[in-house]
Amino acid sequence: MASFENKLKDVIIKLHEIEALKFGMFKMKVGIESPVYVDLRSVISYPEILENIADLMWEFAALRNIECDQLCGVPYAALPIAALMSSRSKIPMVMRRKEAKKYGTKKLIEGKFNPGDNCVIVEDVVTSGSSVLETVVDLHSEGLNVTSVLVVVDREQGGSHNLSEKGVAMNSLCTLSKILQVLKEAGQINQDVVDSVRKYIAASQIHPDGTFLTPQPRTENVNPSRLTLPFTARADQAVNPVAAKLLKVMVSKQSNLCVAADVTSASRLISLAESAGPYVCLFKTHIDIVEDFSPQLIQDLLAAAQKHNFLLMEDRKFADIGHTVSLQYSQGIHKISSWADLVTVHPIPGEGVITGLKSAVTNLHRGCFLVVEMSSAGNLASPNYVASSMEISKKHPDFVAGIVCQTSGTVQNPGLLQLTPGVSLDCQNDGHLGQQYNSPEDIVMSRGADIAVVGRGIIQATDPAQAAQEYRAKLWAAYEKRVSSVKNV
Ligand code: 5BU
Fold first, then answer.
1. Of residues 14, 317, 335, 487, which has the active-site annotation?
2. Would you say 328 is a known binding-site residue?
3. Residue 307 above 90 pLDDT?
4. Which of 435, 436, 451 to mutate to test the pocket of ligand 1 (most atoms within 8 A of CB)?
5. Can 315 be counted among the known catalytic residues?
6. 186-190, 205-209, 221-225, 414-418, range with the lowest pLDDT
7. Does residue 317 carry a catalytic annotation?
8. Helix and strand numbers, DSSP H then E, in the chain
9. In angstroms, what CA-CA distances link 349 with 232, 317, 322, 359, 361?
10. Residue 434 Cα, ligand 1 centroid: separation in angstroms?
11. pLDDT (tens digit, 9 = 90+) per residue, 221-280?
12. Domains in the chain, please, with CATH?
């Protein structure tokens, strides 16, 4: 039987074939032009696709442990999807009228329900989340409880954030980023289309009242998102002390560059810390590849970190049960917790991996980056995995400094940092080794990175100091552009 992921890919490709997903230039309801158009109303003409979507939505709801007493479809495109889900699951359905009837009973909600029933909203596409919020208001006024919405496509333009601010969790079957990835891999769209849609997503975050968070003119109502709030202001919102410190270092050094110091000798590691150190905010190590490791190396690294004012991150990617990771973090020859300000962690074992790491440190002047998406081709991070990982991060704000991911919509909280590897000026991927590169501008503007990780682009350069300087300048300029697109109007 096809996996959930394969069924999802199949549906995305079919939606493109029937032109429910279109690329070009389209005028949106909110008045801006969009390079992508998503309209699932035509799906009723393709019963098989409709059925597949409803089945996937139901499977997805089960994966997310979503349970409810009522389903509510939002007219029009989501109504048949909700009806099919209701028919399969035998969960009854209610329907919100677009307008209250002018005669007879002025019911807002059609269908039978009891006050206090838990209702999940089913929607086809979410942009700012305003239609869903209107539905929530009406359902609440009729006494129904609404805590989640199931969406087929999240356009990643602020909907998830706007809904969560109102206490409604958005669970999306797929995002625009996922659609781009699937259609690009299937050879149905080219890189230019991918780039233009990514730029558009980063540049058009929308508040539910219709105002744009970026890059349209700033209005008094604008509530800047993570992508548009300057690092200085975000330092105050960081709960983890290392994240706050890192944001301050970034501002004082005007650097959002992390060097990936993937070298195998102690002398090269220290030489890189000295040459690239002045231009980076973060120095990332894989300490287990150093062949002549000794405690002295750590002393030298700490001295370089102090001299050049950068933080140290060991990219250990812990991924075991809590008890084991607590030992791996604090014991052995590397004693990582004694020197690394930050470490990377895979959320795959569940929350215990974080509690395990936390149990190994007595003070919390340590933090971690949770790896929720990877840069490598064919990596297994599904939308469901990303969403569940983000839920884990919310439970440990004291220890999670940020998220390692590849797409701009993943991190909403301005107090968390998005760290993104896979950056190079020439963007030449490394073939069968799987790394996929983006330019400094794209990584910050389109993919939403706060800090970009550059390894071979710097360490294999003839002059690493000069290369670090060049990456730093380009990355910082991209950050300033991202922020000023809202600020300077
Ligand atoms: P590169 O030489 O710029 O490709 O090095 C990238 C570094 O980032 C390298 O140390 C990887 O281990 C690390 N990395 C990555 O490339 N992709 C990921 O998704 C994660 C880490 Br997580």
1. 317
2. no
3. yes
4. 435
5. yes
6. 221-225
7. yes
8. 17, 18
9. 34, 12, 8, 16, 20
10. 10
11. 333 579 989 999 999 999 999 999 999 999 999 999 999 999 999 999 999 999 999 999
12. 4-203 (3.40.50.2020), 224-485 (3.20.20.70)
